[in-house]
Amino acid sequence: MAEPAPFLYRQLADMLAGQIRQGLLAPGERLPSVRALCEAHAVSLSTAVQTYLSLEQEGWVEARPRAGYFVRVRPRGAECEPAMSRPQMVAREIAVAHLALDVVKEARRPGVVNLGAAWADPRLLPLKALAREHAELARHKPELLGVYEISAGYPELRRQVARHLQRAGCRCAPDEIIITNGCMEALALSLRAVAKSGDTIAIESPTFYGVLQAIEAAGMKALELPTHPRDGVDLDSLEQALKRRRLAACLLIPSFNNPLGSCIPLAHRERLARLLASADVPLIEDDVFGDISFQWPRLPAVKSFDRAGNVLLCSSFSKTLGPGCRLGYVAAGRYADRVEHGKLLANIATAGLPQAALANYLARGTYDRVAHRASRAYYRRSEQLRHWLLECMPAGTRVTQPQGGVVLWVELPSHVDGVALHDAALQQQLSITPGVIFSPHADYRHHLRISYGLVDDAEMQGAVRKLGVLAHDLASRRSS
Amino acid sequence: MAEPAPFLYRQLADMLAGQIRQGLLAPGERLPSVRALCEAHAVSLSTAVQTYLSLEQEGWVEARPRAGYFVRVRPRGAECEPAMSRPQMVAREIAVAHLALDVVKEARRPGVVNLGAAWADPRLLPLKALAREHAELARHKPELLGVYEISAGYPELRRQVARHLQRAGCRCAPDEIIITNGCMEALALSLRAVAKSGDTIAIESPTFYGVLQAIEAAGMKALELPTHPRDGVDLDSLEQALKRRRLAACLLIPSFNNPLGSCIPLAHRERLARLLASADVPLIEDDVFGDISFQWPRLPAVKSFDRAGNVLLCSSFSKTLGPGCRLGYVAAGRYADRVEHGKLLANIATAGLPQAALANYLARGTYDRVAHRASRAYYRRSEQLRHWLLECMPAGTRVTQPQGGVVLWVELPSHVDGVALHDAALQQQLSITPGVIFSPHADYRHHLRISYGLVDDAEMQGAVRKLGVLAHDLASRRSS
User: Fold this and answer.
1) What angle separates helix B45-57 from helix B34-41, to the nearest 10 degrees?
2) Residues in CB range of A410: below 8 A, 6 or more apart
3) Looking at the whole model, is its pTM more than 0.90?
4) What span, in angstroms and rounded, lies between the C-alpha atoms of A384 and A399?
5) Is the terminal CB of chain B with fewer CB neighbours within 10 Å at N or C?
6) Taking CB atoms and an 8 Å cutoff, what residues of chain B touch A341?
7) Do B344 and A104 touch (CB under 8 A)?
8) Side-chain half-sphere of B187: how many Cα atoms within 13 Å?
9) What CA–CA distance (Å, rounded) separates A157 from B471?
10) Contact list, A126 vs chain B (CB under 8 Å)
């Protein structure tokens, strides 16, 4: 692990911020005095002071003269967030696939500072431990290379994944788990298991371009739902849509929407599961960032409220352990047979040796520690990035406040074009993702997705300053 | 390698049989005398005698009293081969997917003697050498687990595959190679790259059920072409079909059709490539068994005659190195960009570490030796299996004479039902594949595919005897 243990004040600040997020400390509530904090946690006076200073800087608490520290009524910067999206709620075919492909390729150019890809930082991944499991199996079980693995997956990995999902509140039988080559495959197989060409899939707006492309590749249409930058999809709008039209499925990213970083609150999750079950519309729940949560422990998945086998939870280990393993899964509920059949047709089975290696790694029980440590690092980066963006970008820029994951969403002033900024940035060896590829027909023209997955604090400031200069330049050119 | 070096007489017999297959020794031609053979190859008299006895037994040559040995005008058993298939040439939707899935699952039951699956024998695969490459990379390049590999594939493997394809007479640039999770994925991506839902794909009849299911999953229709049990697809019929209707693509298994074991002769290959190029209809060439060839060196692939980038050659290393690696490829010609895009949507990229391991293995240059040795073993098994089938099955049974691969095709007397025989055999712990799943609408009701991939000579005789008893039983029940 490249990430050192955080300072004590940082641990304490993270814990208190977590309690505020979870509502254990309510807005307006008074916090313990500095001295009380020292005693309660057996820390020095300077650690306690530093803890409150950090929380104040990050906008969690405010100091009131002679009264002490209080939980802020609204976290700092809420006024700088974008508003709820208001897509036209019309089922549409998708037409941005090739633009998205170009953007993905550009981010790989050597020498580019990568604020574009929603990838995990290799420095935060337990690569050596994973590699040891691979080497061990290659030495002792070469026969794994000599057979086709079962289409549904290596049995011990299916069992470990079922156990793993307890973290997200899910009680899954190993039988409903289908191992895939990453989460994209899980999504593609799930779509084809629940819907057919011509069908309509309800999605968030904006949503991950990979989701849009998977829907397009399956010949399906997308219906965009209004989505809040912090609380995710608007359930009232979904309820109306369910009444008005035939939806074959709903494909959502409840924890944490890519690109928004939004998180559907706990109470909404239960309602969402009920709504869809009673309409008999399956939910494909993309949980790929679910374990990069800034609230710890993470919220239960929507699937945890599913009693009807109606939710297909899709995820992978690409964001927490290693994307190079290409290992993901669907917890497919009553669609398990169909997903398994789709897997057989797609590529017969996932390779056995990496599956066995991952199963052995998970059995060691270190996953939680690794994922928590990474989440804390990403949380700090997200706060830093947001701070620098609000400081450096033109006035009127709005920035989401991610609840997890490795990306945030930027709404530029309406006269600054996101694609033009992307092009200008790329010429300066800086990759960002233009907002247009996060909707079926290239809406979000003055939006960007920016990732803090690959850049650490040191690189971030310089990159955002550079981006700010370019954005100011574009803004002034347009207004002159 | 579990397979020992063959006896000298066996090597000599294989070489002569190869010359007969290639037409270097013509039907009716007189072979060198036993003594001349001794001198030409510096072998003992008994080795030379044993060589001719083997060739006679296998039906390649015949002894004429006091005149010596002559190449047989028709190899023994040609009269026992099935006739050319005569499918209705109508584009049809496919409806056997679920039956095929059941058959695949049954073959995995523990304790079953597996004559059903067209898998390679792990005893003939270089698993330890492959595993060593995996272990080496896991130790020295754990960073491979930390990144998404490029969608098109690990660059060094693409280069090695391009080199590898020279064996099949193909000059491919590494740029047109897309690495996939095995050959099934290569086929599925190729279909979606050249055709869309509702389009018609021309195929052999019978053909691999995986091909049928891939066409079905993509929402396409299949047009079956008459196919010869030895020479493969009938080009005159294809030519007519091209004139009469719009075909989106042709998906063929020229070397060696599964289930027939047929092989399109060299002269036909060039004509096939020309026919399709001039009609501007792409060919998806499934070459997964191409290197398990009973003629050595193997015939050039149809792609080797392609000058227009019109052929997408799909293959894998599952039959010669190890199916557990799940590594295949498309040499996609002018469709490379489309296949790469499909790969990105399907699962982003194939895992990097196994790709790097395979690249290192291929660089060692032992592939040819391994594939040749396995091919010789499968050739002997194919001859044995054919012999036992003609001996044990009811009169009127016809059996193909595979030119490569690990399966052959059995035509039972018309009153013996293939599915009933499959069911009865499975009750006796013996798996075979019923013929019905090799056509879009369950034709071939009194046919079977039998694999010699997993059973060695010792197991084979008992299994076929058992199958023969069951078949005789079914035949007599029907006629009584």
Assistant:
1) 120
2) A389, A393, A397, A398, A399, A400, A435, A447, A448, A449, A450
3) no
4) 12
5) C
6) 97-98, 101
7) yes
8) 31
9) 41
10) none
